[in-house]
Amino acid sequence: MEGRTRPTSHARGVAAEDAACSALRADGWTILARRRRTPAGEIDILAERDGLLAVVEVKARARLSEAAVAVTPRQQARLLEATDLILAENPDWGANGVRFDLLLVDAAGRVRRIADAFRREG
Q1: In three state form, how does the secondary structure of the chain look?
Q2: Which of the four CATH numbers 3.40.1350.10, 3.30.720.200, 3.40.50.2300, 3.30.1330.60 does domain 9-117 have?
Q3: Is the pLDDT of residue 1 over 50?
Q4: 49 or 117: whose pLDDT is higher?
Q5: Burial per residue of 83-110, b for 16 or more beta-carbon CB atoms within 10 angstroms, e otherwise
C-alpha cells in the first residue's frame, strides 16, 4: 500500500457516524446531537422520532458480525449514566420513551440497526 494512507480510526469513526446519521434521517429520525460529551462519557448520536429518544452507539468494523459484539457491559453502563445526565439537562427529550440502539457499519459502508439493543436492568 505504498503511497496510500490508511484512514485513522478517528476518521473511520466519523465516517461511520455520518453513514449512521444518514440512515437515521432516511428513516424519519431527527438528529438532536452528535458526539455529546458528559462527565460519564460520550454518546455518539441522540436522535428522536415521534417523541422516542434513541441513544445510538455506532460501531464500525470490517464485518457487521464483528461490530455486533463490540458493546461491552461496561460500555452499556457508561451509556446509561451519560443518558441520565443528558435527560436531566433536557427533560423534554424522550417524552415517549428512550431506547438504546446500536448502528453497525461495515467496511463497505452498509448500516445495520439493532433497535433496543439493550435495556436498563431493574
Answers
A1: CCCCCCCCHHHHHHHHHHHHHHHHHHCCCEEEEEEEEECCEEEEEEEEECCEEEEEEEEECCCHHHHHCCCCHHHHHHHHHHHHHHHHHCCCCCCCCEEEEEEEECCCCCEEEEEEEECCCC
A2: 3.40.1350.10
A3: no
A4: 49
A5: beebbeeeeebbeeebebbbbbbbeeee
Per-residue pLDDT averaged across 93-105, rounded?
Answer: 94
